[in-house]
Amino acid sequence: MPTLLAELAQLVSGELHGDGTTIIHGLATLDVAQLGEITLVDHADRANALEQSPATAAIVPRDFPPTTKPTIAVDDVHAAFAQVVSHFRPPRKSTRCGISRAAWISPTARLAGDVQIHPGATIGDDVVIGSGTVIHAGARVMAGCVIGKDTILFPNVVLYEDTQVGDRVILHAGAVLGAYGFGYREVDGQHKLAAQLGYVVIENDVEIGACATVDRGTYGPTIIGEGTKIDNLVQIAHNCRLGKHNLICGQVGIAGSTTTGDRVVMAGQVGVRDHVHIGEGAVLCSKAGVPNSVPAGEVMLGQPATPLRRQKLQMAAIAKLPELRREFRQLQQQLAKLQEQLPSTTNDQHGEQAA
């Protein structure tokens, strides 16, 4: 859909710099943009990269330095670029399906009037589903679950019994909430499954990624706090209680009975042991292994995780080990030479004294 640059500037309410009759055929990010495409640059330090790019034009911040390429200056680069993406690739409109005859719904389930249930979904006994909620194909909602308003369960999501999901929650494909916790007692030399009598509570505005899992509590709830965002392939164990607005990145594993404050960030592949508390606003850097509780606002790095500054000093020291090893060998060699010379020097002195 070829579009004049001036039309795109009008679309995003931006300030046009350059030839408005420039024709734009598509869009791409800066590292792959080609001739005829518009890109985005969100910081002035990438001005040289823009100059070297074959991209025809760019959306930039209002304080962006002058460039030879036509630009559209805006207050929010990413919001404006998203509008341009929607212009060239309009989002697909989903048609309302209502409640499919190919879905299985228990006669004791209570569904609001405008719920959508796609083919192949299964809704168990005594389930309650709020208005505007969409259950996609293959999702299974087991007995006693409660789902709020305007929530989306994508294909093959599974909610075990008595799971509670709030309003405006997004559960991506393959997410499993309420599976048994990994807890066992040893009885007569065998591992016997511990009590699995709890449930899961997902508060409002939470998003949980594809194939992520949240295990039920042993006796009470595992809780995911309001506004928390959980990436794909995350494991949250039984009895955990996460605060509000946490960010949990891909492949994080949180062991049982761990708690977090509000606005905690866990980067990719972080591992947290059981029965610890991560304080409000703490940041756990990528691959951090957390063996102990973390104070509020602390930034942790490494295995085992320590405060960022200490870990950086340790890493710098480790980087110097090869050089220190070479110097140590040189000192050993010099010492050996001195020791070889020492007996002859001593003998010479004794001879002089005898004379």
Features:
355 residues, alpha/beta, 11-stranded mixed sheet, 10-stranded parallel sheet, 39 strands
Question: In a nutshell, what does this entry contain?
Answer:
The protein is an alpha/beta fold and about 350 residues long. The protein has 5 helices and 39 strands. An 11-stranded mixed sheet has the order 10-13-16-19-24-27-30-33-36-38-39, with helices on one face. It has a 10-stranded parallel sheet with strand order 8-11-14-17-20-25-28-31-34-37, with no helix packed on it. Strands 9-12-15-18-23-26-29 form a 7-stranded parallel sheet, with no helix packed on it.
Arithmetic mean of pLDDT: 94
The backbone outline, from C-alpha atoms, is flat
N-C termini distance: 107 Å
The low-confidence parts are none
Note the main sheet: 11 strands, mixed
Rg over C-alpha atoms, rounded to the nearest angstrom: 31 Å
Strand content: 25-35%
Counting copies of identical and different chains, the oligomeric state is single chain
Strand order of the largest sheet: 10-13-16-19-24-27-30-33-36-38-39
Portion in helices: 10-25%
Strand segment tally = 39
* Helix/strand structural class: alpha/beta
The number of helical runs is 5
Could you characterize the architecture of this molecule?
The protein has 355 residues and is α/β, with parallel strands linked by helices. The protein is built from five helices and 39 strands. The strands form seven sheets. It has an eleven-stranded mixed beta sheet with strand order 10-13-16-19-24-27-30-33-36-38-39, covered by helices on one side. A ten-stranded parallel beta sheet has the order 8-11-14-17-20-25-28-31-34-37, with no helix packed on it. Strand 38 and strand 39 (306-307) form a beta hairpin. The longest helix is centred in the C-terminal third of the chain and has 34 residues, at 321-354. The relative contact order is 0.05. The model has no long low-confidence stretch (mean pLDDT 94).
